[in-house]
């Protein structure tokens, strides 16, 4: 008999990582001179526009974001190879360390002006999101990557259309999960933008707090997982 579908503790983990990705992109775009550090599709478009318009400084930041993201994904892949039993915990732990470093940097120096600190912030933020992208692939939740939500929106629309055409209400649950993650991503963007206006130090800590909470949830889930 199939189990009744419902939200699970892993959905809390999913929501926390979605919150971290959204807050990171809002901070990067509004305070790190309009780059994206988790959405590489948008960042690549920004890179192309900057190059086409001859804005080399902006192009450099987008290129650094792309390099940082690739580096984070590569580091996450190495963790998967060397520690397959605790890969999710280790990857989230590395992401938290990177976010801690750049959060302390922002707290001590403020959001940086153009220069080495700005470039370091962009690389660090993108590195963290590259790590998270690998962690999301290890989570058994289909259709929700927690980093880029264009594919999630596509999956959501496709699922709803299939349910409407074929009349299978039981198959609507994946769409509810995807809609929840998308809503959390949007709400986190609103909250982070508001905090950047009124409480910048608090806004700077949102990605770190979300990942630390996700790490705590993952540890609880790991304790309850039956030994293989």
Structure description:
The model has no long low-confidence stretch (mean pLDDT 83). This protein is mainly α. It has one domain (9-221): Up-down Bundle (Growth Hormone, Chain: A). It is globular, with a radius of gyration of 18 Å. The protein is 77% helix and 0% strand.
* SSE pattern, N- to C-terminal: HHHHHHHHH
Largest sheet: none
CATH class: Mainly Alpha
Give the amount of beta strand, in percent.
Answer: under 5%
The percent of residues in helical segments reads over 70%
CATH architecture: Up-down Bundle
Cα Rg: 18 Å
Query: Based on DSSP secondary structure assignment, what is the total number of beta strands?
Result: 0
At the fold tier of CATH, the topology name is Growth Hormone, Chain: A
How confident is the prediction overall: mean pLDDT?
A: 83
What gap, in angstroms, lies between the N and C termini?
A: 23 Å
* Count of the separate structural domains: 1
Present the secondary structure layout.
Layout (H helix, E strand, L loop, with lengths): L8 H23 L8 H13 L3 H27 L4 H23 L6 H23 L11 H17 L6 H26 L1 H5 L1 H18 L5
Helix pairs in contact: 1-5, 1-7, 1-9, 2-3, 3-4, 3-5, 4-5, 4-9, 6-7
